[in-house]
Amino acid sequence: MVAVRSAEEVADVLRAAYRTGWGVGVVLIPPPSLPAPVAAKRGRRLRFIEARRAAGYTQESLAEALEVDSKTVASWEQGRATPHLFRHGRIARTLRMTAAEFRVALATKVGSPAK
């Protein structure tokens, strides 16, 4: 039995097993420190909120500029929803961000959403 801690180590073990002709059984057990999948997907998008404020928008005014409901913008900020891909360019331009900065703002989530 071999314990591995990374994908690279798994690949090394599989290559060694292939070269030697040994059979391999794999059991993946995540470390207990990993967050639950739902918690990892949710959380407030503080960079998105900061970008909106820096561009001078409220949730309502941004929603109006993007022609969406203000509840939609709130959902984006709280991490309960993600803007459709076809909206990314317009949102980034409206917030005066590059596409890369916008992707980072969407991907960066902190804590759990407010209830």
What does it look like?
The chain has two domains: 7-34, no CATH class; 40-107, Orthogonal Bundle (434 Repressor (Amino-terminal Domain)). Helices cover 53% and strands 0% of the residues. Mean pLDDT is 79; it is low at 34-41. It has 115 residues and is mainly alpha-helical. Helix 3 crosses helix 7, helix 4 packs across helix 5 (70-78) and helix 6 packs across helix 7. The protein contains seven helices and no strands. The radius of gyration is 21 Å and the shape is elongated. It starts with 6 loop residues before the first helix and ends in an 8-residue tail after the last helix.
Short overview:
With 115 residues, this protein is mainly alpha-helical. Helix content is 53%, strand content 0%.
Layout of helices and strands:
Elements: H1 7-20, H2 37-41, H3 46-54, H4 59-66, H5 70-78, H6 88-94, H7 99-107
Helix pairs in contact: 3-7, 4-5, 6-7
Tell me the β content.
under 5%
Annotated CATH topology of the largest domain:
434 Repressor (Amino-terminal Domain)
Q: For this structure, what is the CATH class of the largest domain? A: Mainly Alpha
What is the mean pLDDT? Answer: 79
Please tell me the CATH architecture of the largest domain by its name. Orthogonal Bundle
Number of domains: 2
Number of strands: 0
Instruction: Give the overall silhouette.
Output: elongated
The structure class reads mainly alpha
Rg from alpha-carbon coordinates: 21 Å
H/E series, N to C?
A: HHHHHHH
Please tally the helical runs, counting DSSP H or I stretches of 4 or more residues. Answer: 7
How far is the N terminus from the C terminus? 45 Å
